[in-house]
Automatic annotation (TrEMBL):
This is Flagellar protein FlgN. Keywords: Bacterial flagellum biogenesis, Cell projection, Cilium, Coiled coil, Flagellum. Residues 25-108 form a coiled coil. It comes from the Bacteria. It holds the Pfam family FlgN.
Length: 161
């Protein structure tokens, strides 16, 4: 019966990872279309899935420990080696599905990371264009008060015209 519980737990874990993948795909679309409110909601969903995955993973570790009769190297490969014929096939199919889902999830997360970095670079560039740093090319203070002059930002529009 332990292997039945293990398979059930692994299927729950796989389903959660697949749902997380769907959320990351939606997140990619939100990043592309700059929908900030939708992105906030997707981040909340993503956090919920991550928490659920942590809980189910703790269950999986406990069940796997009982099934393998040990407390280290609680891998799916070790479970496949110990399982009998039909259960071995089921575990192998789950392992293949996990590998496929995790590869897609990693790729999508990398794309989201790059899109986020590009958006941050764009915002930073826009702010620098609107509020450029004032440069002192001729003379500077000799009393070591350089830090204060570097923090001064000048607006693009001069309000004292």
């Amino acid at each position: 019966m332990a292997v039945g519980n293990l398979i059930e737990t692994l299927q729950k874990l796989l389903q959660l990872h697949q749902n997380l993948y769907k959320v990351t795909l939606q997140k990619t679309e939100s990043l592309k279309s700059e929908k900030v409110e939708e992105l906030k909601e997707l981040l909340k969903k993503e956090q919920m899935f991550v928490q659920a995955i942590k809980q189910i993973e703790a269950e999986r570790i406990e069940i796997t420990s009982k099934f393998l009769d040990r407390s280290e190297e609680l891998t799916l490969s070790a479970c496949i080696e110990k399982a009998e014929a039909e259960e071995k096939e089921t575990l192998q199919r789950i392992a293949n599905d996990f590998n496929e889902t995790m590869d897609k999830l990693k790729a999508t997360i990398q794309i989201n990371r790059e899109l986020t970095q590009q958006a941050l670079q764009f915002v930073s560039l826009s702010l620098d264009m609107l509020m450029p740093q004032e440069s002192f090319t001729n003379y500077q203070r000799l009393d070591g008060n350089k830090a204060q002059t570097e923090k001064v930002r000048r607006s693009l529009f001069d309000s004292q015209a």
